[in-house]
Amino acid sequence: MQYSFKRKETKYRITETQAAALERLFAQHMVLDRNKPYYIQSIYFDTVDWDVIQESIEKPLYKEKLRLRFYGKNRDSAQGFLELKKKFDGMVYKRRIVFPLHELSHRSIHDIVTADSTQIGRELDFYLQRHSVSAQIYIGYQRTAYNATAPSNLRVTLDRDVRYRLDDLDEHTPHSGQPLLTPNQVLLEIKTTEAIPLWLSAALCELQIFPIPFSKVGTCYTNHVFHRPEQKGASKSA
Hints:
The chain is built from six helices and ten strands, in the order E-H-E-E-H-E-E-E-H-H-E-E-E-E-H-H. It is of the alpha+beta class. An eight-stranded antiparallel barrel has the order 1-6-5-4-3-7-8-10, surrounded by five helices.
């Protein structure tokens, strides 16, 4: 299992028609991850004044955020991934620790981080010491992912039915919440440390697909928190 990542992530907002055309192409060049679409649930941490997201929106050279993520819908057998996601000069770095998700019923995030003696655990602990954060936003969605065969490290994901919640910040009710994208929209993400292959660049050009700056949690804050003063400073717990 991989505990740290370094790659460039480029995002595109596309239609279902464009997604279908790309997936026909992916089937020729890539391997479907997990053999089927799967569900992702993430809880993002911030201060009560939303300092982390506000700083991120200003697009600094370096930024970081903390999130709890798990895959699927079965809490009893799922693993939790507590991730520190950093971005520096366009490159994304992820550092994460893994633990049985059911431990959250009797342990806090701070307890789990403190008990982890790895270098990544110490990095997460340092982050929590410097930032007084708590769970603020839940985001869930259906993901289809494709991986290129070796030696390329290209990975492509398609996220559908992206939903957010500003309360009930846990994984007990997947698929609930408000849509973050408009109907018929799909979020495409291309992740690699190398140049995008020519076959994919040609397809993006032919389908008139262009990159956009996009963050699920940033979009949620900008569209659904920033314009609602009653949400600002509201403390929540997972």
